[in-house]
Amino acid sequence: MRKKYLLTPGPTPLPPEVCQAMSRPIIHHRTPQFQAILKEATEGLKYVLQTKNDVFILASSGTGAMEASVVNLLSFGDSAICVEAGKFGERWTEICRAYGINCEVIKVEWGKAVDPQEIRSRIKDAQSKIKAVFVTHCETSTGVVTDLEAIGKIVKDSEAVLVVDAISGLGAIPLLTDQWSCDVVVSGSQKGLMLPPGLGFISVSPKALKLVESASLPRYYFDLRKAKKALDKTDTPFTPAITLIIALNEALAMIKEDGLENVFLRHKKMAEATRKAVLALGLELFVPDAASNAVTAVKVPAGIDGEKLVKIMRDTYGVTIAGGQSELKGKVFRIAHMGYIEEFDIILCISCLEKVLNQLGFKFSLGAGIRVAEEEFLKK
Amino acid sequence: MRKKYLLTPGPTPLPPEVCQAMSRPIIHHRTPQFQAILKEATEGLKYVLQTKNDVFILASSGTGAMEASVVNLLSFGDSAICVEAGKFGERWTEICRAYGINCEVIKVEWGKAVDPQEIRSRIKDAQSKIKAVFVTHCETSTGVVTDLEAIGKIVKDSEAVLVVDAISGLGAIPLLTDQWSCDVVVSGSQKGLMLPPGLGFISVSPKALKLVESASLPRYYFDLRKAKKALDKTDTPFTPAITLIIALNEALAMIKEDGLENVFLRHKKMAEATRKAVLALGLELFVPDAASNAVTAVKVPAGIDGEKLVKIMRDTYGVTIAGGQSELKGKVFRIAHMGYIEEFDIILCISCLEKVLNQLGFKFSLGAGIRVAEEEFLKK
Fold first, then answer.
1. Per-residue pLDDT band at A288 (split at 50, 70, 90)
2. For B133, phi and psi rounded to 5 degrees?
3. Element (H, E) at B322
């Protein structure tokens, strides 16, 4: 008997309500019964995204929704700014380049957030040729959060649209789509929204919708012109991932019941407890400033094999956290606290971390992490 | 209390084993645990597809897998033959045209199957310029089955690859991918495979893999070069639809337990009983020859409102069948017998059809359909 615990930045644990919803008999999607479900899901996503913009639900992972934003906004040879502050920022550049977009790449040291002023000067330098600015809200590979509010103010005054990858931030950290002028926000199901992977979301502002009409990149499955026509009739252009959308409504109902502000506060508390706990163990945070409340990256201490640490936690003790990706492989481990995660998940994760660090010969005071986490959780 | 019955050509009813699998706690995809699941799923799909080719699992609906085949095989300006014998054949043309492919369209009267010789002569006329031939195995909108074996023999001897939309046929009617030289076969989860929608499948022959390397159409999410690299490490390039893949293994296990030949025989029996039953009611089949054993299209008799018939069956009696699509709207209704459907599903569906036809004033001998269906089911 070994219970399993999941503290990875996607997928995240599923609430029993979500699991149960997926086990119901399936219904047909071209029926008034499913239309009501789709309407509720769309409205719920608008609440979480804090937007009045159109929101489309795609049968794809988050990367599919990222691609949908590129192919629907741009034409071959267009120029765009891609902010690369980690693996998922790089994905913007990769997608854009695959479609012949001229990318102005802003490279940011991993673990740091982009300086919004850098975006301002790049837009200025390009003399209004920039059609879109692609950024990552919470960079899952590093645990950095981007200052969307500041970037939104800058992009708003240009010809460009602001496109945000909010895949791992949505439902975990505040994202005021309309207030911050985020023209296009893409997200996925398997993070803060507490669902399995398989759904992509994309919200589109009126400014961006104009580009959808004029963009000439080829597209079919991700064509938002088709999706818009269907949405206006509470329909989808192709067969939707019915089961996941039904489950989405369960998750959205839970988020609404808590209230978005309380959901964000919970994430903040989990993140703070995690950060303080690892510091108390003598470990170092990978992100000193601009740390996201969705996921915490921790430096693997000298003399410890980071991949082995993650493997023992998972395969021996049933606690799955994430290792580092790409250039951070073996250098950091990441504890996610997004979605269906509450204080005792953090407690058990820190406890398991202490256990394995101890077994690997790392020197620290056993229980030190748990103690400061408990202190944090005692605060109002 | 009103029980619900689903006899639509996608989604199809889910076996309880599949429902239960989806309600399990989720696991992370970058783990040896999920790798084992992915390997089993890929092998199982090869069994159902009767192929040794690589099979890729996509987080998308079947249309996404169709698009994947187009963008991975072709380059801008390439020529391809698209066989249009219904709504889903038209989709091939639409996708190809969205990507700047020069389409040689073979239009076939709805309700009829394409003559393989027509494909032969078109390939010949085009003087080896045809790169791909796109066909539909079971045309869901009409209920026609295509003679893939004959077409495969023709295309095999040309430069072109044969690309088959087997979305609604796979797991319902025989498809010998390798023996019939089907270079690329695309399918989806919500039909014969007894799963919810959200997974796309694509098998690729060595002949087609060469095109994947040389094709220059832009792609990222559906890029099979990335998928191939990942598959060789039992991985996926992007987050897979974990829950659906776990459920896929349950469905594949059921198919293996029955044996593919028995699964096809069951579908044949269901189809024959359905066809004989509706004929016994004095109705007319939409497809006199080349009728698929996956779905049966029936002409709406004069004086009856076809859409009303479908609506009453569904909303009053809980039995969901499908109406006609596009040009067949109101002119046919379709009873699916694919996937998790057995004789008493057909019996109750025919019974409900009799009930509603009677109520709508259609003249026939009550019970006549059920009687011939029962006779059919008594046969060995």
1. confident
2. -120, 120
3. strand B322-323
Per residue in A255-286, pLDDT tens? 999 999 999 999 999 999 999 999 999 999 99
What is the third-level CATH fold of A5-10+259-378? Aspartate Aminotransferase, domain 1 (3.90.1150)
ipTM over 0.95: yes
Of the candidates A19, A62, A100, the beta carbon closest to that of B23 is on: A19
CA dist., res. A214 & res. A292, Å (int)? 36
E strands of A38-95, at which residues?
54-59, 79-84
pTM, whole model, 2 decimals?
A: 0.97
Domain(s) of CATH 3.90.1150.10: residues in chain A: 5-10+259-378
**CA–CA dist B182, B202 (Å, integer):** 11
Q: pLDDT for A302-352, tens place per residue? A: 999 999 999 999 999 999 999 999 999 999 999 999 999 999 999 999 999
Chain B contacts of A186, Cβ < 8 Å?
none
Give the helix/strand (H/E) hosting B168: none
Residue A128 pLDDT greater than 90, yes or no: no
- CATH 3.40.640.10 in chain B is located at 16-257
pLDDT value, residue A333: 98
Instruction: Give contacts of A198 with chain B, Cβ < 8 Å.
Output: 59, 198, 241-244
Report the pLDDT averaged over residues A82-93: 98
Which among A5, A4, A83 has a CA at the least distance from the CA of A335?
Answer: A5
User: Which residues in chain B are classed under CATH 3.90.1150.10?
Assistant: 5-10+260-378
Nearest of A273, A285, A277 to residue A378 by alpha carbon: A273
The reply to whether CATH 2.40.128.20 applies to domain B5-10+260-378 is no
Query: Is residue A4 within 8 angstroms of chain B, CB to CB?
Result: yes
Scanning every residue of chain A, which has its alpha carbon at the shortest distance from the alpha carbon of B9? A28
Please identify, in words, the CATH class of the domain defined by B16-257. alpha beta
DSSP B193-235: T---S-EEEEEE-HHHHHHHHH--S--STT-HHHHHHHHTTT-
Q: What does the alpha-carbon distance between residue B96 and residue B196 come to, in Å, rounded to a whole number? A: 27
Asked if pLDDT for residue B380 goes beyond 90, the answer is no
